[in-house]
């Protein structure tokens, strides 16, 4: 083909740019399904039409929500137990309603949480070798929602913090160590469709039926930013794009087209980009891999998985390829990166629930490489199973990035810096949440303590408020509270003269009773600190923390006892008010 000599140079440059291919190491990623003998057959998948994934995976177990009568249940299988599954396989079956969502604890591979149609969130302890008999005794039972719990999600960096969303339009932040709510978020006006944490857990995003995308500060419960994301009436989903301060949403246009949009949380009025995917009807669920900066999208009822690479410059999102299959999917479980196989260059592994048959199929997303050496460019250090913060540290206002682990030798990286200047005491919401997310990492600066006040964790301050609120009752199975993996059994008698039977460890802890110290002049405190070694100060600090922990446990036990007494008194009043015939009935 000859080009006309009269054609302008700008037109020639445009032709060359039209055929320019963007360079990417993930352009040729392909999906490889496992062989049939490495799949899971004869699994009675749930028939629930909810748009969660009904499956979750960690490096040891796979959990799948199953169909059951008279309550909700799910099965937990070791990953190596493939092939045909026995129809009478042991199940986790303690819910009174259908199970809507399940999530493994990212910092304990033997703890799984489940949200159910019975308005509760329950935590379950799975034995190291898997279930031998059906499990009906939970470890923690969280009551607070008035309607079914639709979504749950663990905090990405803080231990024992979980977020739940419900049809009652509430999001509740729980501290499962104390089995108590940390905060209740009431900023939604319609049904919540998704929840997603930021990488350091300082913010989370939600989408709802009113077509709004909201960025929420979980500690204050305030909506920091909100905007209308997709104009269609069907469900929308959102996912935080790592530490980039951007959020991706998937939804529908007014014409029913499936869309993807990327938003900058610092200026959320308009999307950075909006992409039309296709005209299918299934809800698109996005999955983000922070290590490779790749987003995988899968639609309910589709057989395809599309993947896009994220970029810091316009157009911010680049289509790579798609895995195509004729079998529709009901949900997808995602293996954490630490469970993927770097020798096979596996950057992501999905567990596909086949909608048309009782079949679960693993699918590996592989980057083709000729060399068998470890590929450092596609396997940077990834999030480990070690939490960066305790629950009380996070509640007090601290944010940290995840602790990383090497995919090559399993060595933990150095602990990340604290990314907030807030101290353990004092207000933690003086600054705008978006500004707090952008705070330059600095050392923690402790505020001067007011005279007569003590450094009490925020979760302890909530105990007095919660003990008088009947809406939030924290108990464990068979009226047994969960306290540091030890069960304290309450003997509920009508006369209430029986003492509380506790474990030996609890008896030892009762000996160390913490109480607020009286006001001491500053000069006396300074004189007492002088001459103390760093080791002595650390020892005194940890002793004080143990005393605080002991006080929390004792208050939990007493609150439980009070609840039992109130319930028994209520029953006695009902019986006394009822007639003789009604009472016998």
Automatic annotation (TrEMBL):
WD repeats lie at residues 92-126, 142-184, 185-226. The keyword Coiled coil applies. Pfam families: DUF1899, WD40, WD40_4. Keywords: Actin-binding, Coiled coil, Repeat, WD repeat. PROSITE patterns: WD_REPEATS_1, WD_REPEATS_2, WD_REPEATS_REGION. Residues 18-83 form the DUF1899 domain. GO terms for molecular function: actin filament binding. InterPro entries: Coronin, DUF1899, WD40/YVTN_repeat-like_dom_sf, WD40_repeat_CS, WD40_repeat_dom_sf, WD40_rpt. Residues 548-575 form a coiled coil. Belongs to the WD repeat coronin family. PANTHER family: CORONIN. This is Coronin.
């Amino acid at each position: 083909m000859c080009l006309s000599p009269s054609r302008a140079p700008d037109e020639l440059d445009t032709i060359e740019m039209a055929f320019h291919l963007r360079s990417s190491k993930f352009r040729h990623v392909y999906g490889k399904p496992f062989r049939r003998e490495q799949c899971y057959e004869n699994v009675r998948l749930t028939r629930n039409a909810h748009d969660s994934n009904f499956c979750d995976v960690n490096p040891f177990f796979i959990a799948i929500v199953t169909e059951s009568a008279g309550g909700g249940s799910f099965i937990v299988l070791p990953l190596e137990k493939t092939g045909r599954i026995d129809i009478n396989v042991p199940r986790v079956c303690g819910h009174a309603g259908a199970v809507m969502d399940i999530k493994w604890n990212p910092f304990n591979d033997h703890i799984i949480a489940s949200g159910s149609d019975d308005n509760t969130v329950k935590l379950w302890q799975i034995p190291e070798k898997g279930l031998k008999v059906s499990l009906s005794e939970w470890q923690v039972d969280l009551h607070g929602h008035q309607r079914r719990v639709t979504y749950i999600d663990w905090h990405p960096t803080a231990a024992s913090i979980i977020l739940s969303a419900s049809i009652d339009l509430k999001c509740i932040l729980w501290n499962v160590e104390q089995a108590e709510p940390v905060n209740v978020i009431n900023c939604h006006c319609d049904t919540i469709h998704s929840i997603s944490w930021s990488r350091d857990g300082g913010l989370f995003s939600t989408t709802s039926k009113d077509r709004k995308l909201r960025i929420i500060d979980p500690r204050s419960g305030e909506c920091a930013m909100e905007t209308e994301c997709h104009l269609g009436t069907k469900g929308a989903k959102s996912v935080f794009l790592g530490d980039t301060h951007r959020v991706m949403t998937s939804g529908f246009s007014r014409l029913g087209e499936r869309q993807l949009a990327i938003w900058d949380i610092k200026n959320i009025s308009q999307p950075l980009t909006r992409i039309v995917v296709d005209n299918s009807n299934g809800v698109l669920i996005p999955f983000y891999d922070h290590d490779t900066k790749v987003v995988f999208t899968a639609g309910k009822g589709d057989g395809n998985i599309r993947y896009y690479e994220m970029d810091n410059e316009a157009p911010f999102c680049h289509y790579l390829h798609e895995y195509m299959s004729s079998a529709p999917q009901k949900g997808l479980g995602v293996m954490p990166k630490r469970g993927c196989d770097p020798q096979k260059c596996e950057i992501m592994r999905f567990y596909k629930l086949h909608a048309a048959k009782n079949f679960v199929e693993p699918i590996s997303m592989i980057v083709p490489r000729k060399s068998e050496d470890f590929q450092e460019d596609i396997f940077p250090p990834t999030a480990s199973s070690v939490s960066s913060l305790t629950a009380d540290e996070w509640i007090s206002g601290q944010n940290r990035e995840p602790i990383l682990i090497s995919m090559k030798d399993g060595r933990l990286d150095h602990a990340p810096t604290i990314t907030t200047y807030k101290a353990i005491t004092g207000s933690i919401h003086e600054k705008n949440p978006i500004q707090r997310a952008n705070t330059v990492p600095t050392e923690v600066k402790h505020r001067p303590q007011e005279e007569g006040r003590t450094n009490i964790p925020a979760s302890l301050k909530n105990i007095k408020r919660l003990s008088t609120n009947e809406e939030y009752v924290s108990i464990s199975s068979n009226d047994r509270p969960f306290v540091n993996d030890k069960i304290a059994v309450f003997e509920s008698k009508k006369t209430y003269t029986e003492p509380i039977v506790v474990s030996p460890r609890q008896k030892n802890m009762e000996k160390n009773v913490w109480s607020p110290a009286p006001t001491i002049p500053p000069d006396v405190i300074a004189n007492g600190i002088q001459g103390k070694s760093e080791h002595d100060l650390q020892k005194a600090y940890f002793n004080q923390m143990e005393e605080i922990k002991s006080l929390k446990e004792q208050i939990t036990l007493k609150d439980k006892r009070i609840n039992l007494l109130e319930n028994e008194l209520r029953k006695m009043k009902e019986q006394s008010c009822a007639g003789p015939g009604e009472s016998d009935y």
